[in-house]
């Protein structure tokens, strides 16, 4: 019996369609770059000073040695694919590749770079769009042809959507093949797990603060159930967990300088994750609006990001809209404990 591979999955999907075949070759190129990056991460300190700070982005975020190496590996791999334009977290401007290419690709070559030297999971995120000129990377996420990420963890996983559900492939090291592990990932609609960097609580607005406080109040609060917090500080790892067992991830805007629109980038972080999560029946918003509807104004634009279990994402939107949409949070009914007393 033939084993279901990434290559086989893409071959079937792209049969007799030129643009799809181009998408397939870009995905396979990214998978190849991912194997190289995973080898470096597996060697860790034996591969050199991967976590050393090499520089800073225009907005002050540090750039580590492996950020730069991963960017080079992704660019090299995509140079052999029909990609006309490449936008990367690690480069101020998008770069032109193949003038005859049909695709525009946006990448976060290494997501979770604060974790490089901690032996925790990090990843590579990608978004593939049709190329139609120099502004092609500024199409809304709903125009994506494919999106995915590689997760470099105990297993190297490739999570992919080409618009027919979200598939999970695991790298079989011996053969270098990504093998299908899950045909249709499904994000359960309800959850008792939320992921947020709680150290920012004092910088949040009322909606996010109320939501998190209500989760923390557990059985004594309006939610009437206890919650768990999980925060890896590698979004890819949080996405993977949410695909496997549900949950919600929040990186809202906050009052710190430069964080009014949160930390995550629309074009190469929020859009691909939103496509993957929606294809697995979850939801992704900026708090209220679906991420996939937003029209980016520039490559490195930030966006507040909430994604995961659909019912929970919708509940968070109601916290933003106000108490009219949430009778259980009116001053009278604000605390279960009060009602019980
Ligand atoms: O440092 P914080 O505030 O916990 O933020 C962590 C978040 O930022 C990110 O690291 C941003 O991505 P990069 O590592 O690519 O900059 C996410 O992966 C993660 O969820
Ligand atoms: Mg990132
Ligand atoms: Mg990054």
UniProtKB/TrEMBL annotation:
Complex and partners: Homotetramer.
Pfam family, one: FBPase
Functional pathway: Carbohydrate biosynthesis; Calvin cycle
Domain Fructose-1-6-bisphosphatase class 1 C-terminal: residue ranges: 190-320
Lineage: Bacteria, Pseudomonadati, Pseudomonadota, Alphaproteobacteria, Hyphomicrobiales
Protein EC: 3.1.3.11
Residues reported to bind Mg(2+) 2: 108, 111, 269
Native source organism of the sequence: Ancylobacter koreensis
Chain ranges of the Fructose-1-6-bisphosphatase class I N-terminal domain: 57-183
Similarity annotation: Belongs to the FBPase class 1 family.
Organism domain of life: Bacteria
GO MF entries: fructose 1,6-bisphosphate 1-phosphatase activity
Protein name: Fructose-1,6-bisphosphatase class 1
Enzyme class at the top of the EC tree: hydrolase
Cofactor: Mg(2+)
PROSITE patterns: FBPASE
Record InterPro entries: FBPase_C_dom (IPR044015), FBPase_class-1 (IPR000146), FBPase_N (IPR033391), FBPtase (IPR028343), Fructose_bisphosphatase_AS (IPR020548)
Catalyzed reactions: beta-D-fructose 1,6-bisphosphate + H2O = beta-D-fructose 6-phosphate + phosphate
Cofactor binding annotation: Binds 2 magnesium ions per subunit.
Compartments in which it is found: Cytoplasm
Positions of substrate binding: 111-114, 197, 249-251
Alphabetically ordered keywords of this record: Carbohydrate metabolism, Cytoplasm, Hydrolase, Magnesium, Metal-binding
Binding-site residues for Mg(2+) 1, renumbered to this chain: 89, 108, 110
């Amino acid at each position: 019996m033939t084993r279901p591979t990434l290559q086989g999955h893409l071959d079937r999907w792209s049969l007799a369609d030129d643009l799809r075949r181009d998408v397939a070759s870009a995905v396979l190129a990214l998978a190849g770059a991912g194997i190289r990056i995973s080898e470096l991460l597996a060697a860790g300190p034996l591969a050199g000073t991967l976590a050393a700070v090499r520089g800073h982005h225009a907005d002050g975020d540090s750039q580590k040695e492996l950020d730069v190496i991963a960017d080079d590996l992704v660019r090299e791999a995509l140079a052999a694919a029909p990609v006309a334009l490449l936008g990367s977290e690690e480069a101020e401007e998008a770069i032109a590749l193949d003038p005859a290419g049909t695709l525009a690709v946006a990448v976060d070559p290494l997501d979770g770079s604060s974790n490089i030297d901690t032996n925790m999971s990090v990843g590579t995120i990608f978004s593939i769009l049709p190329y139609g000129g120099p502004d092609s990377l500024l199409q809304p996420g709903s125009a994506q042809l494919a999106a995915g990420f590689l997760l470099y963890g105990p297993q190297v996983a490739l999570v992919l959507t080409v618009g027919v559900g979200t598939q999970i492939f695991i790298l079989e090291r011996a053969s270098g093949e990504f093998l299908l592990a899950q045909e249709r990932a499904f994000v359960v609609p309800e959850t008792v797990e939320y992921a947020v960097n709680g150290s920012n609580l004092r910088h949040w607005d009322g909606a996010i603060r109320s939501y998190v406080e209500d989760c923390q109040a557990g059985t004594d609060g309006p939610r009437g159930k206890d919650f768990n917090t999980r925060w890896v500080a590698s979004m890819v790892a949080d996405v993977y967990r949410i695909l496997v067992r549900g949950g919600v991830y929040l990186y809202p805007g906050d009052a710190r300088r430069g964080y009014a629109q949160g930390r995550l980038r629309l074009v190469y972080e929020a859009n691909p994750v939103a496509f993957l999560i929606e294809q697995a029946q979850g939801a992704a918003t900026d708090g209220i609006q679906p991420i996939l509807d937003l029209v980016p104004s520039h490559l490195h634009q930030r966006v507040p990001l909430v994604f995961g279990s659909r019912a929970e994402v919708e509940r968070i939107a109601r916290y933003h809209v106000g108490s009219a949409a949430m009778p259980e949070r009116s001053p009278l009914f604000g605390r279960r404990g009060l009602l019980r007393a």
